């Protein structure tokens, strides 16, 4: 299927769709470093500007519109979140493009915290807005660890279908204990244990880490990492002013490198990120895990379109 991608970032969601056999024909993001990364690894079909400034007529027709619309206003990690946060309205750009392009399907991704914003009223509004466009809308909270990602990352996935088409969410393939015919979760050590020591000579891209001191107090970025479990949700700096929230390595001696976090996000080992270390961390943290994206995208291949 032909895919238009909004809020593409470094391309985790897009890469999953590409690997599943779909064609990304147009993409957009406002974050320049992420766009450079996208072009370096995925393709030149991404534009670098505010989506609100792009008329729908300039966007090609497609079968699917996808987008992990910005979530800072929704996230439970944002203690100042409120229903009037202007970032909460960016989903309306996704809504606008879907309304004007009328794809057969759309897929939207966001943080779990969106479900509780405004006592659930904001999420109900979003779902009703999509339904009012003529889509059959369903959503699920999926844990990336259940799809082979070495990370316990829960995200809300919203899928809309038109014209009687039906989408089935992917069934979990992994579980914590590996019971009932499922494979056991991929642990942090499984994922990054074989990567070289970043303090020794190596040729891995983005294999450097923040020197911000460790202080294991249980807060985000200061948690002891169990090597035998998937990592907690990968996070990046809160903003340009600082606020390091990079996960420590499970050895307890340093923070994880960009390469290690990218691997935990299931990016390929040769996927190179552009920009400063802070920017690299942010791009990785904001991405959809590639393996989860692949599982979501593969389900579209099973649809016999009406």
E-strand count: 9
The shape, in one word, is globular
End-to-end distance: 14 Å
How many helices? 8
Largest sheet: 7 strands, mixed
CATH fold node name of the domain at 2-176 and 288-300 = Rossmann fold
Please trace the helix and strand order, writing H or E for each element: EHEHEEHEHEEEEHHHH
Strand content: 15-25%
Low-confidence stretches are none
In spatial order, strands of the major sheet run: 3-2-1-4-5-7-6
Rg on CA atoms, Å:
19 Å
- CATH hierarchy class name of the domain at 2-176 and 288-300: Alpha Beta
Give helix % range: 10-25%
Overall pLDDT confidence: 91
Structure summary:
24% of the residues lie in helices and 15% in strands.
Q: Would you mind describing this structure in some detail?
A:
- By secondary structure, the protein is an alpha/beta fold.
- It has a domain at 2-176 and 288-300: Rossmann fold, CATH 3.40.50.150.
- Helix content is 24%, strand content 15%.
- Strands 3-2-1-4-5-7-6 form a 7-stranded mixed sheet, sandwiched between helices.
- It is globular, with a radius of gyration of 19 Å.
Fill in the keyword field for this structure.
single chain; 306 residues; alpha/beta; Rossmann fold; 7-stranded mixed β-sheet; two-stranded parallel ribbon; 8 helices; 9 strands; 24% helix
Write the layout of secondary structure elements.
Elements: E1 2-6, H1 12-19, E2 23-29, H2 32-41, E3 46-48, E4 64-67, H3 91-101, E5 105-111, H4 121-131, E6 136-143, E7 154-161, E8 174-175, E9 183-184, H5 188-192, H6 258-264, H7 277-286, H8 290-300
Parallel strand pairs: 1-2, 1-4, 2-3, 4-5, 8-9
Antiparallel strand pairs: 5-7, 6-7
Helix pairs in contact: 1-8
């Amino acid at each position: 299927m032909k895919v238009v991608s909004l809020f593409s970032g470094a391309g985790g969601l897009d890469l999953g769709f590409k690997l599943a056999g779909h064609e990304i024909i147009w993409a957009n993001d406002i974050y320049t470093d992420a766009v450079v990364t996208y072009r370096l690894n995925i393709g030149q079909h991404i534009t670098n500007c505010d989506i609100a400034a792009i008329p729908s007529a300039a966007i090609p027709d497609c079968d699917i519109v996808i987008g992990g619309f910005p979530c800072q206003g929704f996230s439970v990690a944002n203690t100042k979140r409120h229903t009037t946060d202007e970032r909460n309205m960016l989903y309306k750009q996704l809504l606008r493009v879907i309304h004007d392009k009328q794809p057969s399907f759309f897929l939207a991704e966001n943080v779990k915290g969106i479900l509780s914003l405004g006592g659930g009223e904001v999420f109900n509004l979003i779902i009703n807005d999509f339904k009012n466009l003529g889509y059959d809308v369903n959503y699920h909270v999926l844990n990336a660890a259940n799809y082979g990602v070495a990370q316990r990352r829960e995200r809300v996935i919203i899928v809309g279908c038109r014209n009687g088409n039906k989408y089935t969410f992917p069934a979990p393939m992994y579980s914590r204990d590996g019971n009932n015919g499922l494979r056991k979760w991929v642990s942090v050590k499984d994922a990054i244990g074989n990567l070289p020591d970043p303090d020794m000579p190596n040729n891995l891209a983005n294999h450097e880490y923040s020197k911000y001191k460790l202080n294991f107090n249980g807060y985000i970025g200061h948690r002891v990492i169990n090597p035998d479990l998937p990592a907690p949700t990968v996070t990046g700096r809160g903003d340009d002013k600082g606020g390091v929230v990079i996960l420590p390595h499970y050895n307890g001696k340093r923070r994880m490198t960009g390469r290690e976090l990218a691997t935990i996000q299931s990016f390929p080992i040769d996927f190179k990120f552009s920009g400063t270390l802070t920017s690299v961390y942010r791009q990785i943290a904001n991405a959809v895990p590639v393996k989860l994206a692949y599982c979501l995208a593969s389900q579209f291949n099973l649809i016999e379109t009406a």
